[in-house]
Amino acid sequence: METEVTVYGPLRSATGDKTVVLEWAGGIVADALAALVDAYPRAASHLYDGDAVRASVRVSLAGDRAGLEEPVPEGAALAVVPAVQGGSRH
């Protein structure tokens, strides 16, 4: 299945482009994120903390916020906003 994925922030340096076409088996949002990391390994540190998707990662499916367990239909577009790196407090 092909899914158009738009990435924001530091994910662009991992994918080399703002929008990429992801070739994957299909499934749920969490599967799409895993496939994105398979295709662009440098994206992993922006999306995952160990084996878990970072709580601050935001995914939109066809313009609406999507949970990790939401199915991704054929032809849907995803947008991924990575975790925001925090600064130190003084």
TrEMBL record:
InterPro entries: Beta-grasp_dom_sf, Mopterin_synth/thiamin_S_b, ThiS/MoaD-like. Gene3D superfamilies: 3.10.20.30. It comes from the Archaea. This is Molybdopterin converting factor, small subunit. The lineage of its organism: Archaea, Methanobacteriati, Methanobacteriota, Stenosarchaea group, Halobacteria.
